[in-house]
Design a protein that fits this description.
Radius of gyration: 24 Å
Order of helices and strands: HEHEHHEHEHHHEHEHEHHHHHHHEEH
Bound molecules: adenosine-5'-diphosphate, magnesium ion
Largest sheet: 5 strands, parallel
Oligomer: single chain
CATH topology of the largest domain: Rossmann fold
Number of strands: 9
Distance between the termini: 28 Å
Strand content: 5-15%
CATH superfamily of the largest domain: P-loop containing nucleotide triphosphate hydrolases
Length: 382
């Protein structure tokens, strides 16, 4: 049996990547023309995949442009960030590890990095600094790409994923100012900063009193259109030796509200359950499987919120819009208008609900189906 043509759980930049032509062209042009770019969307819509794809194209065609992608998800401190930043910039500046060792010594004036290489230079190259010195001279690290670029006649594109995580560092406010001050002066380095926590990203980049205000272009990444998903699904089935007709394929983005991750996941389950040709029943069974597989997560999510927040979520699920009207507050036991306002903010900030066309809806379409089944015994069969 051929492998599934659908991928979820990791970024998709080559196989299984679809659409995003306009966004790719815009991002590519921005990054190659020195326009710093911020990308914001809820998680799992496709930011990391888009950036990886564009960077992959740039790496193939632009030999004088060096690229770096750092995921800040697991970086917990300013020190760790600076060390990772320096290491990755040095590594991307040359394909020869001998040159990394030279760069490590050549390009710092005050800082003296400790460099080490293991048996596998590609994965075992490490670099560390004395913390006190690093704190005093963090500019040297932040300016490193500009200095290397000038000396070597190259350019850098630096992509920082889940950028809002920087705000969890202690002393973040001062650090944020320093980042902006260093980065905005650089002529040979372009930054792509993206993240999923929308309220935090918006606060960093759209708040006039914050240093990153007007740092560059902001792309609010949208979902991939339904029609395009249908083409992708039917073609992928054929490529992998099975079939699904357009009407059946349409159910997948329809049920998953065009959410990239879930469209891929439901397509995968459907493909897996298909012998030769997928039917309505196949998609129905696949949907059951998907909800079952995710339900422990959803269970946990609902356990982590308070009763009045849960009630507010129920009101959203019921399609209510006037949350502070007396009838709605009483019917759903939402507490006081103040409770409603506070809880709404909590649910929005935790990316559980968002406002679209003056209406609130669940961010996670599969969670919504599970939720309605769980609390209203509303079936999600198709
Ligand atoms: N352009 C795309 N084409 C097909 N599937 C995609 C695309 N972008 C994202 N996906 C799907 O969505 C999932 C999440 O994408 P990812 O890039 O990690 O999102 P984000 O960085 O916004 O959280 C991927 O694992 C993949 O299944
Ligand atoms: Mg991502």
């Amino acid at each position: 049996m051929k492998d599934s043509p659908f991928i979820y759980g990791t970024t998709v930049s080559i196989h299984s990547f679809t659409n995003r032509e306009d966004e790719s062209a815009k991002l590519r042009s921005n990054l190659l023309n020195g326009i710093n770019t911020t990308i914001i969307s809820p998680r799992r819509w496709g930011k990391s995949s888009l950036v990886e794809k564009v960077i992959h194209d740039i790496n193939r065609k632009e030999k004088k442009t060096k690229t770096v992608i750092i995921d800040l998800f697991s970086i917990g401190s300013e020190e760790e960030f600076l060390e990772t930043f320096a290491r990755e910039v040095i590594k991307s500046s040359s394909s020869k590890w001998q040159e990394w060792m030279l760069s490590g010594r050549e390009f710092f004036k005050k800082l003296i990095p400790t460099l080490s290489l293991g048996i596998e230079p590609q994965s075992d190259f490490s670099l560390s600094f004395d913390w006190k010195e690093l704190k005093k001279n963090s500019d040297e690290v932040l300016n490193l790409p500009e200095i290397i670029a000038k000396k070597r006649g190259i350019k850098f594109i630096i992509c920082l994923d889940e950028f809002q995580n920087l705000s969890s560092f202690s002393n973040y406010i001062a650090f944020e100012k320093k980042l902006r001050a260093c980065w905005q002066r650089q002529k040979s380095v372009t930054y792509c900063l993206y993240g999923s926590k929308r309220h935090m990203m918006t606060d960093i980049f759209n708040n006039p009193s914050k240093p990153f205000y007007r740092f560059g272009d902001i792309i609010l990444l949208k979902k991939i259109e339904q029609k395009k998903w249908v083409t992708f699904i039917t073609k992928s089935f054929i490529k992998a030796g099975k079939q699904i007709d357009e009407k059946t394929a349409l159910l997948i983005p329809l049920m998953m509200k065009n959410h990239s991750w879930y469209v891929q996941q439901l397509s995968h389950y459907t493909w897996n359950l298909t012998h030769r040709k997928a039917t309505l029943t196949t998609v129905g069974n696949a949907l059951n499987e998907l909800i079952n597989a995710n339900s422990p997560l959803y269970q946990k999510e609902t356990e982590s919120i308070s009763t009045t927040q849960l009630n507010l979520l129920k009101a959203v699920a019921k399609g209510e819009t006037q949350f502070t009207s007396n009838t709605v507050m009483q019917k759903h036991q939402l507490g006081t208008p103040n409770n409603v306002i506070k809880n709404k903010t909590v649910l929005i900030n935790n990316d559980i609900i968002h406002e679209i066309n003056n209406k609130f809806e669940f961010v996670d379409p599969a969670f919504e189906l599970w939720f309605k089944k769980q609390y209203f015994n509303q079936s999600y069969s198709i």
